[in-house]
Structures are given as structure tokens and as C-alpha cells.
Amino acid sequence: MNEEALRQEIIPNKVGTPLLKRVSHSYLPVSDLKRASEWYVQYLGLKKENPGGSILILGNGQWLFLLESKTKQNANFVTDHWNGNDYEMFSLTFETEDIINLHASLRQSGTYVESIEDQGSCGLQFKFKDPDGNKFNVWQDPLRS
């Protein structure tokens, strides 16, 4: 179907109906694909979808792509709109059903790991970084604790 035909067939969205279903997969910059994929498998328990390790599978089947970046960068950004001024913000929040063992595994890896915090109705949470400095949040649903 050509672009002109697509424009003519656009149907207005129903008010309040999301057109996006979910996040299918995410992309993360890494400096060394082999080293990064081994770390994600060993310390986070993810599964490799392909032998090269660039596609990892989370527990719910969602894909996480690790891509070598030409420049040393990570997925973090700085904001004044989260936890004070100049806060280094994480790009993803993962959910776990075993936050205690995950926290212990990450501490064992020697990477940056913050303490577990009880966020009340938002559950237990902590922040960590992978070896490339990508910062993440992880939480456990308080109804499953």
C-alpha cells in the first residue's frame, strides 16, 4: 500500500484508546557485547536468544537487545524532575519476584548497587548499574512479597 493510500485510510483514534500495546523490546548501549551479555546471563539470569548474545530474554519473554556503541555512552540521563536536582535517571525499571537474591547477586558482581528501600505501596526497590554504567531500577510487587 502506498503512502497516499495510507493517508486516505487513516481512521481517527477513539478518545482514550491507546494505540500502543506494550514495550516489545528495549535497546541498551554496551562497550563489549560478549562481556556484557555474559554479565546479564550470570548476574541477572537472562537467557540468550542467539549465540552472539546480542538478544537476551527476560522472564516474561520480553527481549533486551545489547548493542555495541561506537562511543562510550549509556542510557542514563540527568533530570531535575525526579529525585532532586541533577539526578542521574535510570532508563528502565525491571520487576522481580526475588529482590533479595537479585540484590545479593548484583552485590557479588562488584557493580554499583544501592540499598534496598521499602517504598510502601510501591514495594521494595533498589537501583544498580551494569558494567557499562547503564543505571536501572528494580522493584518487587508488594502484593507478591
UniProtKB/TrEMBL annotation:
InterPro entries: Glyas_Bleomycin-R_OHBP_Dase, Glyas_Fos-R_dOase_dom, VOC_core. It comes from Paenibacillus psychroresistens. It comes from the Bacteria. This is VOC family protein. PROSITE patterns: VOC. Residues 22-141 form the VOC domain. It holds the Pfam family Glyoxalase.
